[in-house]
């Protein structure tokens, strides 16, 4: 079976064509700056890389270009669009309606649109990708894979805010979590690597990238996660503030006469590593600045480590233990210093990593010290594969 994975954003569209039977990536790439005067189209198939700069007026044209070049370029191995069996779409917000991937029927489509009110930058953009595929490949099964679905197993005590009930219910304000596809993938994968059924394990997955979230997975079900109503809550991130006293936000708005849009920009685009360091949102830059003695950069990184420890500790309490901690995404997979600092001074909890084993980047491997009670792993995330597998499963049932 061949599956096209699409991650459609407001001005970009990432894609991957996978042969599920042969476990190969036939092609992958992205279209950037859709709707701007000059766009960028990149496609890689095997050793061949195509890059073009040209105007891409909208998402339908972007998908058209992708399909055209997938067929045109011999290295992709695709001869006809008929060979594509299903399309899997990443969908950021599935609200409380979807606890699993869904075939995109009219009802599912309408729900994704409805939840666009809570994810205005994402859901409408995802639907543009769905619309484009519908026009260009009519009748082809399209599957929605929700970032929120895996977190739907949380109990009300974990997902409910202390707001008045009528407001929370009227506006569907609760914690939904995010990065669910990644947390699901790495938790299942680590269980496989440990050779134990996930139903018997307590796992904490740390997805640390530009956006970061930490999730507690007990017996295969999410019991808590650090992101909330939106992907803002929780960890200090590249440009996102994460946990903050809501009253401090109101206070700042009053003091500086900032409106809602302005405050949203500050919290999501100007805070986090970037805001605290006043230097960069990228951890590599922060680490270089620290090496040169930049104290603000050091504080930014210290907050990230502190908060990760706080979440891990609270999730161990919530699950009454932990069998494995998993690191994934840009920082989790690549920064040995971050992994080491997060896991430092937690011997009391049975957590200790081995410096030599931890001296790796982007490899699937165990890094805990011999004899440590808790296993610690690096599992590179693979959201595209996870989306493709969900699409394959649903399409196979048709
Ligand atoms: P996104 O959330 O945008 O998918 P990524 O998962 O790619 O982000 O993570 C990006 C983050 O990973 C950046 O902060 C980057 O600095 C960090 N990162 C990537 N490689 C390294 C490295 N070798 N050392 C430290 N941080 C790294």
Walk me through this protein's architecture.
The chain has 398 residues and is α/β, with parallel strands linked by helices. 38% of the residues lie in helices and 20% in strands. The chain has 14 helices and 14 strands. Helix 10 crosses helix 11 and helix 11 crosses helix 13. The radius of gyration is 21 Å and the shape is globular. Adenosine-5'-diphosphate is lined by residues 209-211, 238, 282-284, 329-331, 334-335.
Order of helices and strands: EEEEEHEEHHEHHHEEEHHHHHEHHEEH
Largest sheet, strands/sense/barrel: 8 strands, mixed
Share in β-strands: 15-25%
Span from first to last CA? 13 Å
Bound molecules: adenosine-5'-diphosphate
Low-confidence stretches: none
Q: How confident overall, as mean pLDDT? A: 96
